[in-house]
Specification:
homodimer; about 575 residues; alpha/beta; 8-stranded mixed β-sheet; 16 helices; about 25% helix
Chain lengths: ~575, ~575
């Protein structure tokens, strides 16, 4: 904004606040949850030009009688991977805005692994005009490791570029998961911190403490969302980290960490989601769920709302956001019920969310990322064959309900010189197929405990490089499931007897859908029903796709499979399939 | 800092924190007042390269046994006019650093009125290497009004210039006293807000409330240090202002406002001094006095210290300052006694203050600002004559102990067609002599209640334009007092019977001394003793120079005198001497 425009804007704000120009909306008879004064007080709140005009008896085009309802600022999620919702950002915004969200700080780590800086910039451009604000932290660890093939790399120059070209929207460096790299003074890792100047750096340092934590913090990161117990949170807080109290669909820490919040330090905590799966988003909500939960756990509502509005706004330096006060962006939520945070009406920049069109202004970018050209465009059964070499294989052992795996040594089912899946022992064949058009790598192994009785399942959400991962009891169904995803641009599929039983297409980078949220949840349900039809124990609820999507992530112990083969995570090295 | 240097710095910080390089100082057996966690906990704190390395059993060149003493971050004064101490900034730093201060946010409003942008830049340059950090808010109201002649004007382009050329040190726009101008949408005033972009704007809006306050805040200002009662503070807080709890030598608000601070809003308050006279500074201290007082008034020590360290640091966006934590600037204070905030030892950027040289690196700039060229270089008795025109004059009536004055209509002592001072009625002649070399204006009037029996007093600290103000019972002594200040570059003087009884020279802009603090206080004492020797009631303690220095400020009611003549402040217009 140039100085003349700014001067005009200030002049108009004064005229509006003095009541010389009619406001657009007056929220009458509100009880304002004032996150600045920490009090709840009666207020009539005028909105105009996307901003809060002030409190008082203003004249307005539209008068909304709040009838004593509570009003609070729009919620701000300080750390989320939008990709976990499988929704396009505008569709996410449609759902979250109605739940009271006004802004998110997005680490587009998954998009970045597939499409790099271009993917991030596509998303920035796509969401530029969205009334729910998408701020971005530049993804710091792409690829996550050198033991896999990702779709892209993000280096220090990309970080500088993003910060410089999207100033005010790219706020800093996203969660710096490679804490061993920081502690080892890896120049490439540190150059990324240096590249973002004195800006914000999100941390990710589970269980790091003592001098190592001093070093990690001194290097740059000043938030943490990975604390699992009170002591860890207290140490990180005392050393200068803003603590994100995470409550996601997978990792849930809010209840354990809430006692770390006191009257003297509450300003240093924010509520965040990190991830939120589509069904959770629709049924439980977005950050409203976390606020509700914090209140249910005994936190005073004013403080719970502070931790989801003004606290993240201040931490990230968001100018005049996160509160309802004169000159602040008019992100205002009217609640039917404070304790349960039930939204009656929400405004984003002064516009009623119910009357807002959340259609993305252009086509979703970042399609067609299924590039198997090096394999001739599709997966063939022979690509999946494992000829016998020795007698015993390293097999990934799933630990129910966890992301860590065990390393098993097992004699596979052998037939005609081939190692085969063995339904009798719940031992499926597993393939990770490079899908970014880089090298056509296929990693092959076995996984025990996925719960398949027959058929195959495939997925392109496969952290962090998001290659095509397939598990099955026979090569044919594996190829069918995999190729069905190649055909639709990625997603999740279940196959049996040579045909696809169910499929959720995720054509945006193989990660996000073009469907409305309700359609995504319906398709996911169908995929899960299909899985049950080929499962060993259909009556037991499991999360086979969740398990599958983490089997390729070589930073969580013990044994994982990438497109380059098995990884012994404890020793952080590739190991052979045959013992 | 370029990226290579930054990378090197990060690498070294990590090595230090890991203990691979020996630290410089280890503060052993400390009890850390942790303003981040809000707790007090045991810690050994290592310092090196000007930063806090971390907590732990580090090896260090110097081990300091704190023997269980409390340790806290250096204090940060969010709003002060250093000129009120009459000390050069390095000398101020010497005194304040030993009292635990690590940084000040300085509105150089007085210097700016005399020397404009050049004066501000001189001070910025002078203090660049000072271990106590001088941040500046660009003075917004220079001159304060159009009814007086100041030494300089500061316009929107000066604001932009200062922000751009001293980025990171000039943080925003200083207290915007001209709130009527803001509310009237005065384009010049608003252009100054626009010129500082989205940066910080300090407010100054005593008693402004309701829609007017909405307008003022929406226009930009987001702090207040002028609240006089709880309701005012609460309204300003609730509308988004960070509240500076002021306790200065003149204006004292801490006790009245402290009840506004709660567990839910304490992060939005800071302790500030605004002004601090030299004697107060030496006897009671700087911000340590305010912390002590807040604790004595019942505030928990951790919170009082938060309000004087991390709160102002965050409000002003001071990167990694205001707390003792890894990577933070090593501004550390060791206390002999927490409740009384008695400093045992202080470190600025890791260096022991007791071993720090506070000699300014160059000569103090901004001397020789007594320019009476238009008057031929000095004040003559005939310049001070008031020939009779009518029978009754408007006379300024001093209200004991206050800055407001009354407007009296009085028949002056008349002799030979001249109106004269009248010791019998405590009615002195008053002159405001333009001293910036602009026009040689002399405003003449009478003041009742200053307490002079004979002689004259003169001063160049005369808010806000800092012209030469003289009051006396005869023209000769008035000229002598005035000319003695012309000769020494400004200051304060007392004259009787044609000779100077005492003088404090303030050669830096007529506002600040070149002496050490102790010398300034001694000279001030001498000036006061001299005043008593010519006073009507030597046994009564009054503040004649304080009164004098505000008699030329035409923004405090009711009747004031500038170089352009009498000002009826209520009607904000010049009025004639003769009724």
């Amino acid at each position: 904004m140039d100085q003349g425009t700014r001067l005009q804007a200030i002049t108009r704000r004064i005229a509006l606040a003095k009541g010389e120009i009619r406001a657009e909306v007056l929220l009458q008879n509100a009880r304002l949850v004032n996150v600045l004064s920490g009090e709840i007080h009666a207020a009539d709140i005028a909105l105009a030009d996307g901003l809060v005009v002030g409190f008082g008896d203003y004249d307005a085009e539209t008068i909304v009688d709040c009838a004593g309802r509570y009003v609070c600022p729009g919620l701000i999620d300080g750390h989320i991977h939008i990709e976990s919702t499988m929704l396009g950002p505008w569709e996410f915004a449609r759902i979250a805005a109605a739940r009271g969200t006004s802004a998110v700080i997005w680490d587009p780590h998954e998009i970045a692994n597939v499409l790099g800086r271009d993917g991030i910039e596509d998303m920035l451009e796509l969401t530029l005009t969205c009334p729910l604000s998408f701020y971005v932290m530049a993804s710091s660890c792409v690829p996550a490791t050198g033991m896999e093939t990702s779709g892209a790399r993000i280096g220090p120059r990309d970080i500088s570029w993003l910060m410089a070209h999207h100033s005010g929207r790219v706020l800093g460096l996203a969660e710096l998961m490679n804490y061993p790299g920081v502690l080892a003074k890896d120049p490439l890792v540190l150059a990324k911190i240096a590249a973002c100047g004195c800006a914000l750096v999100d941390g990710h340092s589970p269980l790091v403490s003592g001098k190592a934590l001093n070093a990690y913090i001194a290097a740059g990161p000043n938030t943490d969302h990975e604390c699992i117990d009170l002591e860890e949170a207290r140490e990180k807080l005392s050393k200068g980290m803003h603590i994100f109290l995470r409550e996601g669909s997978i990792e849930k820490n809010l209840k354990d960490l809430l006692p770390a919040v006191t009257d003297f330090n509450a300003q240093n905590f924010s509520l965040v989601c990190d991830d939120r799966d589509p069904a959770d988003l629709l049924s439980h909500g977005h950050l409203d769920h976390n606020v509700r939960m914090a209140i249910a756990l005994g936190m005073p509502p004013v403080r719970a709302i502070q931790m989801a509005s003004i606290n993240p706004a201040r931490h990230f330096g968001l100018h005049r956001r996160g509160a309802v006060a004169p000159g602040y962006r008019a992100d205002v939520v009217i609640l039917d019920d404070l304790e349960n945070f039930r939204v009656w009406k929400a405004y984003l920049a002064g516009k009623d969310v119910a009357e807002t069109d959340f259609t993305a202004p252009g086509a979703m970018p970042a399609r067609n990322t299924m590039c198997l050209a090096m394999l001739g465009g599709k997966v063939r059964e022979e690509n999946l064959a494992i000829p016998q070499v020795k007698d015993e294989v390293r097999c990934i052992g799933i630990v129910p309900g966890q992301l860590v795996t065990r390393q098993l040594h097992v004699r596979p089912l052998l037939e005609d010189g081939q190692a085969l899946a063995d339904p009798a022992r719940d031992m499926a064949k597993l393939a990770v197929i490079e899908r970014h058009g880089k090298n056509g790598n296929i990693g092959l192994a076995f996984v025990q405990g996925l719960g398949l009785a027959r058929g195959a399942i495939a997925c392109t959400v496969a952290h962090d490089s998001h290659n095509l991962i397939v598990a099955g009891m026979n090569d044919k169904d594996m190829a069918v499931a995999a190729n069905s995803l190649v055909e639709c641009g990625g997603g999740m599929a279940v196959a049996e007897n040579g045909r696809v039983l169910a499929r959720l297409a995720l054509p945006v980078a193989g990660l996000m859908s073009l469907l409305p949220a309700e359609g995504v949840v319906r398709a996911l349900d169908e995929v899960h029903v299909a899985f049950k039809s080929i499962a060993r124990n259909p009556e037991v609820d499991t999360h086979p796709f969740m398990s599958l999507s983490f089997l390729a992530l070589p930073v969580i112990p013990s044994l994982k499979l990438t497109d380059r083969g098995l990884v012994d995570v404890e020793h952080f090295k590739h190991v052979g399939l045959w013992v």
